[in-house]
Amino acid sequence: MSPPACDGIETPSTTTSCCCRCEEEDVVKPDGQNCLHCKIIDQPSSSSCFIRSDKELEKLWRILIASAKGFSIGAGLKGGLSIFSILARFKKTKLSPTQRKAGMVSNGEAIIKAVKETLRYGLFLGAFAGTFSSVDEFIAAVGGHRRTAGWRALLAGAVAGPTMLMTGPNTDHTSLAIYILMRAAVLASRCGIKSKRFGGFCKPLTWAHGDIFLMCLSSSQILSAYILKQDSLPHSYKSFLNTHGGKHAAILQGIKEIASGMPLTNLDGIEKHYKSMGVNIKLDPEMKVPCTIVHGNQSCQSHILSFLRQAYARALPVYLPVYLFPALIVHRQDLLKRPFTILGKGLFGTARSSLFLSVYCSSAWMWTCILFRAFKTCNIPMVAMGTFPPGLALAIEKKSRRIEISLYCFARAIESFFTCMIDAGILPKSKKLNRADVLIFSLSTAIIMHCYAQEREVFRSKYLNVLDWVFGVPPPTSETPRGKQS
Protein backbone atom coordinates (compact mmCIF):
# COMPACT_ATOMS: atom_id res chain seq x y z
CA MET A 1 0.00 0.00 0.00
CA SER A 2 1.44 3.33 -1.01
CA PRO A 3 1.86 5.99 1.65
CA PRO A 4 -0.78 8.67 1.83
CA ALA A 5 -0.15 11.62 -0.38
CA CYS A 6 -0.84 14.07 2.43
CA ASP A 7 -1.51 13.82 6.11
CA GLY A 8 -2.98 17.29 6.64
CA ILE A 9 -1.83 19.70 9.27
CA GLU A 10 -3.51 22.89 10.28
CA THR A 11 -2.42 26.17 8.76
CA PRO A 12 -2.98 29.69 10.08
CA SER A 13 -6.01 29.94 7.80
CA THR A 14 -7.42 26.73 9.35
CA THR A 15 -7.20 24.93 6.04
CA THR A 16 -5.35 21.74 5.30
CA SER A 17 -4.27 22.61 1.78
CA CYS A 18 -0.90 23.96 0.64
CA CYS A 19 -1.64 23.68 -3.09
CA CYS A 20 1.12 21.15 -3.57
CA ARG A 21 1.20 19.30 -6.91
CA CYS A 22 2.40 15.78 -6.29
CA GLU A 23 4.30 14.06 -9.03
CA GLU A 24 1.81 11.25 -9.49
CA GLU A 25 -1.25 13.40 -10.10
CA ASP A 26 -1.62 16.84 -11.63
CA VAL A 27 -4.28 17.95 -9.15
CA VAL A 28 -4.26 20.09 -6.03
CA LYS A 29 -4.08 17.95 -2.90
CA PRO A 30 -3.94 18.80 0.78
CA ASP A 31 -0.42 18.95 2.09
CA GLY A 32 1.09 17.61 5.25
CA GLN A 33 4.18 16.44 7.00
CA ASN A 34 4.10 13.04 5.35
CA CYS A 35 3.86 14.33 1.74
CA LEU A 36 6.86 12.74 0.11
CA HIS A 37 7.10 15.46 -2.55
CA CYS A 38 7.02 18.25 0.01
CA LYS A 39 9.55 16.50 2.21
CA ILE A 40 12.02 16.51 -0.67
CA ILE A 41 11.45 20.21 -1.31
CA ASP A 42 11.64 21.24 2.35
CA GLN A 43 14.89 19.42 3.01
CA PRO A 44 17.93 21.76 3.04
CA SER A 45 19.78 21.07 -0.21
CA SER A 46 23.52 20.92 0.39
CA SER A 47 24.00 19.82 -3.22
CA SER A 48 22.53 23.10 -4.51
CA CYS A 49 25.10 25.00 -2.46
CA PHE A 50 27.86 22.92 -3.98
CA ILE A 51 26.47 23.50 -7.47
CA ARG A 52 26.29 27.23 -6.84
CA SER A 53 29.82 27.22 -5.48
CA ASP A 54 31.08 25.21 -8.45
CA LYS A 55 29.50 27.69 -10.85
CA GLU A 56 31.18 30.62 -9.13
CA LEU A 57 34.54 28.85 -9.20
CA GLU A 58 34.01 27.99 -12.84
CA LYS A 59 33.35 31.63 -13.70
CA LEU A 60 36.42 32.77 -11.77
CA TRP A 61 38.50 30.08 -13.45
CA ARG A 62 37.32 31.24 -16.87
CA ILE A 63 38.43 34.81 -16.10
CA LEU A 64 41.85 33.71 -14.82
CA ILE A 65 42.47 31.37 -17.74
CA ALA A 66 41.44 34.02 -20.28
CA SER A 67 43.79 36.53 -18.64
CA ALA A 68 46.70 34.08 -18.65
CA LYS A 69 46.13 33.08 -22.26
CA GLY A 70 45.79 36.70 -23.34
CA PHE A 71 49.06 37.52 -21.61
CA SER A 72 50.80 34.60 -23.31
CA ILE A 73 49.65 35.74 -26.76
CA GLY A 74 50.62 39.38 -26.23
CA ALA A 75 53.98 38.59 -24.67
CA GLY A 76 54.69 35.81 -27.16
CA LEU A 77 54.03 37.87 -30.28
CA LYS A 78 55.73 41.04 -29.06
CA GLY A 79 58.58 39.09 -27.50
CA GLY A 80 59.14 37.07 -30.66
CA LEU A 81 59.36 40.17 -32.81
CA SER A 82 61.67 41.79 -30.27
CA ILE A 83 64.01 38.79 -30.29
CA PHE A 84 64.47 38.98 -34.05
CA SER A 85 64.94 42.74 -33.83
CA ILE A 86 67.64 42.35 -31.17
CA LEU A 87 69.39 39.60 -33.13
CA ALA A 88 69.49 41.95 -36.11
CA ARG A 89 71.07 44.62 -33.91
CA PHE A 90 73.79 42.23 -32.74
CA LYS A 91 74.96 41.89 -36.34
CA LYS A 92 75.79 45.57 -36.39
CA THR A 93 78.91 47.08 -34.89
CA LYS A 94 78.95 48.83 -31.55
CA LEU A 95 77.79 52.41 -31.40
CA SER A 96 80.34 55.11 -31.97
CA PRO A 97 80.43 58.17 -29.68
CA THR A 98 78.83 60.20 -32.50
CA GLN A 99 75.93 57.76 -32.79
CA ARG A 100 75.40 57.76 -29.03
CA LYS A 101 75.30 61.56 -29.01
CA ALA A 102 72.68 61.37 -31.76
CA GLY A 103 70.42 59.46 -29.35
CA MET A 104 70.89 55.89 -30.60
CA VAL A 105 70.55 53.28 -27.85
CA SER A 106 73.00 50.49 -27.09
CA ASN A 107 72.21 46.78 -27.37
CA GLY A 108 71.77 46.50 -23.60
CA GLU A 109 69.32 49.38 -23.54
CA ALA A 110 67.47 47.87 -26.49
CA ILE A 111 67.10 44.55 -24.61
CA ILE A 112 65.69 46.30 -21.52
CA LYS A 113 63.26 48.25 -23.68
CA ALA A 114 62.21 45.07 -25.49
CA VAL A 115 61.52 43.27 -22.19
CA LYS A 116 59.42 46.19 -20.94
CA GLU A 117 57.42 46.34 -24.16
CA THR A 118 56.91 42.57 -24.09
CA LEU A 119 55.50 42.75 -20.56
CA ARG A 120 53.32 45.74 -21.43
CA TYR A 121 51.77 44.05 -24.43
CA GLY A 122 51.30 40.86 -22.45
CA LEU A 123 49.54 42.79 -19.68
CA PHE A 124 47.47 44.64 -22.26
CA LEU A 125 46.06 41.52 -23.91
CA GLY A 126 45.82 39.72 -20.57
CA ALA A 127 43.86 42.61 -19.06
CA PHE A 128 41.67 42.84 -22.15
CA ALA A 129 40.77 39.14 -22.00
CA GLY A 130 40.23 39.25 -18.24
CA THR A 131 38.13 42.42 -18.36
CA PHE A 132 35.94 41.11 -21.16
CA SER A 133 35.35 37.80 -19.38
CA SER A 134 34.64 39.56 -16.06
CA VAL A 135 32.11 41.99 -17.54
CA ASP A 136 30.53 39.20 -19.57
CA GLU A 137 30.07 37.02 -16.48
CA PHE A 138 28.85 39.93 -14.33
CA ILE A 139 26.17 41.01 -16.80
CA ALA A 140 25.04 37.40 -17.27
CA ALA A 141 24.78 36.92 -13.49
CA VAL A 142 22.84 40.14 -12.91
CA GLY A 143 20.65 40.31 -16.00
CA GLY A 144 20.39 36.67 -16.96
CA HIS A 145 22.29 34.84 -19.65
CA ARG A 146 19.41 34.58 -22.11
CA ARG A 147 18.02 38.08 -21.64
CA THR A 148 21.40 39.78 -22.16
CA ALA A 149 22.75 37.50 -24.89
CA GLY A 150 22.02 39.98 -27.68
CA TRP A 151 24.12 42.86 -26.32
CA ARG A 152 26.31 41.53 -23.52
CA ALA A 153 29.43 40.88 -25.63
CA LEU A 154 29.03 44.28 -27.32
CA LEU A 155 29.18 46.10 -23.98
CA ALA A 156 31.91 43.86 -22.55
CA GLY A 157 34.08 44.46 -25.61
CA ALA A 158 33.65 48.22 -25.30
CA VAL A 159 34.50 48.19 -21.58
CA ALA A 160 37.63 46.10 -22.22
CA GLY A 161 38.92 48.48 -24.91
CA PRO A 162 40.64 51.03 -22.60
CA THR A 163 43.04 48.31 -21.42
CA MET A 164 45.10 49.51 -24.40
CA LEU A 165 46.43 52.18 -22.02
CA MET A 166 48.46 49.46 -20.28
CA THR A 167 50.97 49.60 -23.14
CA GLY A 168 51.87 53.05 -21.82
CA PRO A 169 49.73 56.12 -21.05
CA ASN A 170 51.70 58.24 -23.51
CA THR A 171 52.00 55.58 -26.22
CA ASP A 172 49.76 56.41 -29.16
CA HIS A 173 48.28 53.46 -31.05
CA THR A 174 46.29 55.22 -33.75
CA SER A 175 47.55 52.85 -36.44
CA LEU A 176 46.63 49.77 -34.41
CA ALA A 177 43.22 51.22 -33.53
CA ILE A 178 42.44 52.03 -37.16
CA TYR A 179 43.56 48.55 -38.22
CA ILE A 180 41.28 46.92 -35.64
CA LEU A 181 38.49 49.23 -36.85
CA MET A 182 39.09 47.97 -40.39
CA ARG A 183 38.85 44.40 -39.12
CA ALA A 184 35.59 45.25 -37.35
CA ALA A 185 34.27 46.86 -40.54
CA VAL A 186 35.05 43.69 -42.50
CA LEU A 187 33.15 41.56 -39.99
CA ALA A 188 30.24 44.01 -40.00
CA SER A 189 30.16 43.95 -43.81
CA ARG A 190 30.07 40.15 -43.80
CA CYS A 191 27.12 40.32 -41.44
CA GLY A 192 25.53 42.85 -43.79
CA ILE A 193 26.03 40.57 -46.79
CA LYS A 194 24.09 37.85 -44.95
CA SER A 195 21.31 40.28 -44.06
CA LYS A 196 18.23 40.50 -46.28
CA ARG A 197 17.88 44.19 -45.47
CA PHE A 198 21.47 45.28 -46.12
CA GLY A 199 22.64 42.55 -48.50
CA GLY A 200 22.16 44.70 -51.59
CA PHE A 201 24.22 47.57 -50.18
CA CYS A 202 27.07 45.28 -49.15
CA LYS A 203 27.24 43.32 -52.41
CA PRO A 204 30.05 45.50 -53.90
CA LEU A 205 32.21 44.43 -50.95
CA THR A 206 32.28 40.89 -52.34
CA TRP A 207 34.47 41.91 -55.31
CA ALA A 208 37.09 39.18 -55.67
CA HIS A 209 40.03 41.54 -56.27
CA GLY A 210 38.98 44.32 -53.95
CA ASP A 211 41.84 43.51 -51.58
CA ILE A 212 44.44 44.11 -54.30
CA PHE A 213 42.82 47.39 -55.34
CA LEU A 214 42.78 48.48 -51.69
CA MET A 215 46.46 47.60 -51.45
CA CYS A 216 47.24 49.72 -54.51
CA LEU A 217 45.45 52.71 -52.98
CA SER A 218 47.29 52.21 -49.70
CA SER A 219 50.60 51.81 -51.50
CA SER A 220 50.19 55.11 -53.32
CA GLN A 221 49.77 57.00 -50.04
CA ILE A 222 52.31 55.08 -47.96
CA LEU A 223 55.17 55.04 -50.46
CA SER A 224 54.55 58.65 -51.46
CA ALA A 225 54.75 59.60 -47.79
CA TYR A 226 57.90 57.48 -47.43
CA ILE A 227 59.58 59.62 -50.10
CA LEU A 228 57.93 63.00 -49.56
CA LYS A 229 56.71 63.23 -45.94
CA GLN A 230 57.94 60.57 -43.56
CA ASP A 231 56.69 62.51 -40.53
CA SER A 232 53.14 61.49 -41.44
CA LEU A 233 53.97 57.82 -40.80
CA PRO A 234 54.14 56.10 -37.39
CA HIS A 235 57.69 55.82 -36.08
CA SER A 236 57.79 52.01 -36.12
CA TYR A 237 56.37 51.83 -39.63
CA LYS A 238 58.76 54.52 -40.82
CA SER A 239 61.67 52.45 -39.51
CA PHE A 240 60.24 49.41 -41.30
CA LEU A 241 60.04 51.30 -44.61
CA ASN A 242 63.52 52.77 -44.20
CA THR A 243 64.87 49.25 -43.73
CA HIS A 244 63.04 47.57 -46.60
CA GLY A 245 63.00 50.59 -48.89
CA GLY A 246 66.74 50.05 -49.05
CA LYS A 247 67.69 53.67 -49.69
CA HIS A 248 69.83 56.08 -47.68
CA ALA A 249 68.17 59.17 -46.21
CA ALA A 250 70.25 61.41 -48.48
CA ILE A 251 68.86 59.64 -51.57
CA LEU A 252 65.28 60.08 -50.37
CA GLN A 253 65.95 63.74 -49.67
CA GLY A 254 67.27 64.22 -53.20
CA ILE A 255 64.18 62.63 -54.77
CA LYS A 256 61.92 64.72 -52.54
CA GLU A 257 63.64 67.95 -53.54
CA ILE A 258 63.36 67.20 -57.27
CA ALA A 259 59.70 66.12 -56.97
CA SER A 260 58.85 69.23 -54.94
CA GLY A 261 60.63 71.55 -57.37
CA MET A 262 63.22 72.54 -54.77
CA PRO A 263 66.96 73.03 -55.42
CA LEU A 264 69.20 70.05 -54.62
CA THR A 265 71.00 70.80 -51.36
CA ASN A 266 72.68 67.52 -50.45
CA LEU A 267 74.38 66.21 -53.58
CA ASP A 268 77.64 65.86 -51.65
CA GLY A 269 75.92 63.58 -49.14
CA ILE A 270 74.58 61.37 -51.91
CA GLU A 271 77.99 61.18 -53.61
CA LYS A 272 79.67 60.31 -50.29
CA HIS A 273 77.11 57.56 -49.70
CA TYR A 274 77.85 55.94 -53.06
CA LYS A 275 81.59 56.41 -52.52
CA SER A 276 81.33 54.45 -49.26
CA MET A 277 79.87 51.63 -51.37
CA GLY A 278 82.76 51.80 -53.85
CA VAL A 279 80.88 53.77 -56.51
CA ASN A 280 82.18 57.11 -57.75
CA ILE A 281 79.55 59.31 -59.35
CA LYS A 282 79.17 63.00 -60.14
CA LEU A 283 75.59 64.26 -59.92
CA ASP A 284 74.15 67.03 -62.06
CA PRO A 285 72.47 69.72 -59.92
CA GLU A 286 70.16 70.54 -62.86
CA MET A 287 68.86 66.98 -63.35
CA LYS A 288 65.14 66.47 -63.97
CA VAL A 289 65.03 62.67 -63.69
CA PRO A 290 66.44 61.28 -60.40
CA CYS A 291 67.44 57.82 -61.68
CA THR A 292 71.14 58.54 -61.03
CA ILE A 293 70.27 59.49 -57.47
CA VAL A 294 68.24 56.30 -57.00
CA HIS A 295 70.71 53.73 -58.34
CA GLY A 296 73.98 55.51 -59.19
CA ASN A 297 75.82 54.10 -62.21
CA GLN A 298 73.54 51.06 -62.49
CA SER A 299 70.93 50.80 -65.22
CA CYS A 300 67.31 50.65 -64.13
CA GLN A 301 67.06 46.95 -65.07
CA SER A 302 70.19 45.77 -63.25
CA HIS A 303 69.24 47.88 -60.23
CA ILE A 304 65.86 46.17 -59.92
CA LEU A 305 67.39 42.68 -60.10
CA SER A 306 70.09 43.40 -57.53
CA PHE A 307 67.60 45.20 -55.29
CA LEU A 308 65.21 42.23 -55.46
CA ARG A 309 67.89 39.83 -54.17
CA GLN A 310 68.81 42.16 -51.32
CA ALA A 311 65.15 42.85 -50.46
CA TYR A 312 64.38 39.12 -50.24
CA ALA A 313 67.22 38.62 -47.77
CA ARG A 314 65.87 41.50 -45.67
CA ALA A 315 62.30 40.15 -45.76
CA LEU A 316 63.02 36.61 -44.52
CA PRO A 317 63.70 37.58 -40.87
CA VAL A 318 60.48 39.61 -40.86
CA TYR A 319 58.13 36.79 -41.80
CA LEU A 320 59.78 33.93 -39.96
CA PRO A 321 58.26 34.90 -36.57
CA VAL A 322 54.97 35.83 -38.28
CA TYR A 323 54.53 32.18 -39.30
CA LEU A 324 56.44 30.49 -36.48
CA PHE A 325 54.67 31.85 -33.39
CA PRO A 326 51.08 31.46 -34.65
CA ALA A 327 51.94 27.86 -35.56
CA LEU A 328 53.04 27.27 -31.97
CA ILE A 329 49.81 28.79 -30.62
CA VAL A 330 47.09 27.88 -33.13
CA HIS A 331 48.46 24.53 -34.37
CA ARG A 332 50.09 23.45 -31.11
CA GLN A 333 48.32 20.06 -31.09
CA ASP A 334 48.86 19.28 -34.77
CA LEU A 335 52.50 20.28 -34.39
CA LEU A 336 53.10 17.21 -32.22
CA LYS A 337 51.17 14.88 -34.53
CA ARG A 338 52.54 16.03 -37.90
CA PRO A 339 55.43 18.43 -37.28
CA PHE A 340 56.92 18.18 -40.77
CA THR A 341 53.64 19.17 -42.43
CA ILE A 342 53.06 22.15 -40.15
CA LEU A 343 56.67 23.34 -40.30
CA GLY A 344 56.74 22.82 -44.07
CA LYS A 345 53.68 25.01 -44.51
CA GLY A 346 55.25 27.61 -42.25
CA LEU A 347 58.48 27.69 -44.25
CA PHE A 348 56.58 27.85 -47.53
CA GLY A 349 54.47 30.71 -46.19
CA THR A 350 57.61 32.51 -45.04
CA ALA A 351 59.19 32.15 -48.48
CA ARG A 352 56.06 33.34 -50.30
CA SER A 353 55.45 36.34 -48.03
CA SER A 354 59.11 37.31 -48.27
CA LEU A 355 58.80 37.19 -52.04
CA PHE A 356 55.75 39.46 -51.85
CA LEU A 357 57.54 42.08 -49.75
CA SER A 358 60.69 42.01 -51.88
CA VAL A 359 58.71 42.29 -55.14
CA TYR A 360 56.60 45.06 -53.63
CA CYS A 361 59.64 47.16 -52.68
CA SER A 362 61.50 46.41 -55.92
CA SER A 363 58.54 47.24 -58.13
CA ALA A 364 58.11 50.56 -56.33
CA TRP A 365 61.51 51.71 -57.60
CA MET A 366 60.90 50.06 -60.97
CA TRP A 367 57.60 51.86 -61.64
CA THR A 368 58.90 55.24 -60.51
CA CYS A 369 61.92 54.88 -62.80
CA ILE A 370 59.68 53.90 -65.72
CA LEU A 371 57.42 56.91 -65.27
CA PHE A 372 60.26 59.36 -64.65
CA ARG A 373 62.01 58.26 -67.84
CA ALA A 374 58.81 58.04 -69.90
CA PHE A 375 57.68 61.57 -69.03
CA LYS A 376 61.23 62.94 -68.52
CA THR A 377 60.19 64.68 -65.33
CA CYS A 378 59.66 64.05 -61.63
CA ASN A 379 56.90 65.67 -59.60
CA ILE A 380 54.52 64.79 -56.78
CA PRO A 381 51.69 63.43 -59.00
CA MET A 382 54.25 61.29 -60.81
CA VAL A 383 55.45 59.85 -57.49
CA ALA A 384 51.84 59.07 -56.49
CA MET A 385 51.20 57.37 -59.85
CA GLY A 386 54.42 55.37 -59.70
CA THR A 387 53.68 54.04 -56.22
CA PHE A 388 50.18 52.78 -57.13
CA PRO A 389 51.10 49.67 -59.23
CA PRO A 390 53.40 48.08 -56.59
CA GLY A 391 50.25 47.05 -54.75
CA LEU A 392 49.72 44.42 -57.45
CA ALA A 393 52.49 42.41 -55.77
CA LEU A 394 49.89 41.40 -53.20
CA ALA A 395 48.65 38.81 -55.71
CA ILE A 396 51.69 36.70 -54.72
CA GLU A 397 50.17 36.14 -51.28
CA LYS A 398 47.50 33.53 -50.68
CA LYS A 399 43.93 34.78 -50.70
CA SER A 400 43.33 34.55 -46.95
CA ARG A 401 46.30 36.83 -46.20
CA ARG A 402 45.58 39.44 -48.86
CA ILE A 403 42.76 41.11 -46.98
CA GLU A 404 44.85 41.13 -43.78
CA ILE A 405 47.79 42.87 -45.43
CA SER A 406 45.63 45.32 -47.39
CA LEU A 407 43.72 46.32 -44.25
CA TYR A 408 46.95 46.67 -42.30
CA CYS A 409 48.39 48.99 -44.95
CA PHE A 410 45.11 50.82 -45.45
CA ALA A 411 45.00 51.70 -41.76
CA ARG A 412 48.43 53.30 -42.01
CA ALA A 413 47.53 55.01 -45.26
CA ILE A 414 44.46 56.58 -43.65
CA GLU A 415 46.50 57.86 -40.72
CA SER A 416 49.19 59.25 -43.02
CA PHE A 417 46.63 60.87 -45.34
CA PHE A 418 44.81 62.73 -42.57
CA THR A 419 48.11 63.77 -40.98
CA CYS A 420 49.14 65.30 -44.30
CA MET A 421 45.77 67.05 -44.59
CA ILE A 422 46.08 68.48 -41.09
CA ASP A 423 49.67 69.62 -41.62
CA ALA A 424 48.64 71.29 -44.88
CA GLY A 425 45.89 73.19 -43.04
CA ILE A 426 43.12 71.55 -45.06
CA LEU A 427 41.66 69.83 -41.99
CA PRO A 428 41.54 71.30 -38.47
CA LYS A 429 43.40 69.55 -35.66
CA SER A 430 41.22 68.40 -32.77
CA LYS A 431 42.51 69.58 -29.40
CA LYS A 432 39.72 68.15 -27.26
CA LEU A 433 40.17 64.44 -28.01
CA ASN A 434 43.66 63.43 -26.89
CA ARG A 435 43.24 59.63 -26.99
CA ALA A 436 41.08 59.03 -30.03
CA ASP A 437 42.95 55.75 -30.51
CA VAL A 438 41.44 54.32 -27.31
CA LEU A 439 37.94 55.39 -28.35
CA ILE A 440 38.34 53.87 -31.82
CA PHE A 441 39.81 50.68 -30.36
CA SER A 442 36.94 50.32 -27.86
CA LEU A 443 34.34 50.78 -30.60
CA SER A 444 36.13 48.22 -32.75
CA THR A 445 36.48 45.58 -30.03
CA ALA A 446 32.80 46.02 -29.17
CA ILE A 447 31.84 45.16 -32.75
CA ILE A 448 34.33 42.29 -33.00
CA MET A 449 33.30 40.64 -29.74
CA HIS A 450 29.62 41.04 -30.59
CA CYS A 451 30.20 39.28 -33.91
CA TYR A 452 32.21 36.62 -32.07
CA ALA A 453 29.30 35.89 -29.74
CA GLN A 454 26.43 36.24 -32.23
CA GLU A 455 27.82 35.82 -35.77
CA ARG A 456 30.64 33.31 -35.46
CA GLU A 457 30.46 32.20 -39.09
CA VAL A 458 31.81 35.57 -40.32
CA PHE A 459 35.23 34.80 -38.79
CA ARG A 460 38.07 32.98 -40.49
CA SER A 461 38.73 29.65 -38.82
CA LYS A 462 42.23 30.56 -37.60
CA TYR A 463 40.99 33.67 -35.79
CA LEU A 464 38.00 31.82 -34.43
CA ASN A 465 40.30 29.12 -33.04
CA VAL A 466 42.41 31.70 -31.22
CA LEU A 467 39.36 33.47 -29.75
CA ASP A 468 37.84 30.16 -28.68
CA TRP A 469 41.13 29.19 -27.07
CA VAL A 470 41.22 32.40 -25.05
CA PHE A 471 37.56 33.00 -24.19
CA GLY A 472 35.94 29.61 -24.63
CA VAL A 473 33.28 28.74 -27.20
CA PRO A 474 30.22 31.00 -26.69
CA PRO A 475 27.22 28.77 -25.97
CA PRO A 476 23.76 29.05 -27.54
CA THR A 477 21.55 31.68 -25.96
CA SER A 478 19.45 28.90 -24.40
CA GLU A 479 22.43 27.78 -22.31
CA THR A 480 24.78 29.35 -19.81
CA PRO A 481 28.51 29.80 -20.61
CA ARG A 482 29.13 26.38 -19.16
CA GLY A 483 26.34 24.69 -21.05
CA LYS A 484 24.00 24.52 -18.04
CA GLN A 485 20.63 26.10 -17.49
CA SER A 486 20.92 29.63 -16.11
TrEMBL record:
Gene Ontology CC annotation, any one: endomembrane system
Top-level division of the source organism's lineage: Eukaryota
Subcellular location: Endomembrane system
InterPro entries noted in UniProt: Tmem135, TMEM135_N
Short name of any one Pfam family annotated for the protein: TMEM135_C_rich
Stretches assigned to the Transmembrane protein 135 N-terminal domain: 298-419
Entry membrane topology: Multi-pass membrane protein
Record key words, sorted: Membrane, Transmembrane, Transmembrane helix
Family, per entry: Belongs to the TMEM135 family.
Protein's recorded name: Transmembrane protein 135 N-terminal domain-containing protein
Lineage of origin: Eukaryota, Viridiplantae, Streptophyta, Embryophyta, Tracheophyta
